[in-house]
């Protein structure tokens, strides 16, 4: 009888401890919305890699969860029309982040199924920003990552109007801006015209079984290119001291080491 009472007492104590134990700290969820340059890729298109794929390796997974919702071929207009945005809004919690990078498909005038005028592009970015802040979460605008395009040995700017529109909205609404268009162009230029092919999906016939006839793609990234672009994003997270992200980086390894920044600037206002 004493043994039964003792067992019941231990069971009751365990239940009480379970209910009174402090809940683990909530992880910051970092949503990524955008196009194929960021998106998760299926095995059939490997080695094509979106820069959102390696991004998670740069953060302490005990504190930050990267939730990549980017989709191939989407513009701001089609991302909204396909109801890909509303589920994110519904799930947002205070202090979460939404990184927003579109432009490649918005500017595609030859593809009316995805093209978005600069005016509508601005309206859509404003919608993403205001609805993120309404949930007391943090928006971050990112200019569209560059395509590889050289002329006379110089990497050209490939998203003039849409990068300018992104920067304009960031400035008007006081949103942190990662100018990935600029930093990725500088990176491609540093590599040089021929070596920069290593950053993109450039394959000769027979190089990979997924591309038996080769691939000459100056938009989508190789594994190396995606990791380099993710490094540029994280470098700006650190430089701008974005709270909840900059203070939760993973311990450096050979794969996720972030090059030091040449300048360190204060974060732009991130009040939701």
Automatic annotation (TrEMBL):
Keyword Transcription found: no
Which residue windows does the record flag with biased composition (Polar residues)?
259-272
Could you say which protein family the record assigns here? Belongs to the 'GDSL' lipolytic enzyme family.
Question: Which parts of this chain are annotated as the region Disordered?
Answer: 248-272
Return the protein name.
Answer: Rhamnogalacturonan acetylesterase
Residue stretches in coiled coil: none
PANTHER family in the cross-refs: PUTATIVE (AFU_ORTHOLOGUE AFUA_2G17250)-RELATED, RHAMNOGALACTURONAN ACETYLESTERASE
Report the residue ranges that make up the SGNH hydrolase-type esterase domain in this protein.
32-227
A single GO molecular function, which one?
Answer: hydrolase activity, acting on ester bonds
Sorted keywords for this record are:
Hydrolase
Q: Name one Pfam family in it.
A: Lipase_GDSL_2
State the organism named in the record.
Hymenobacter telluris
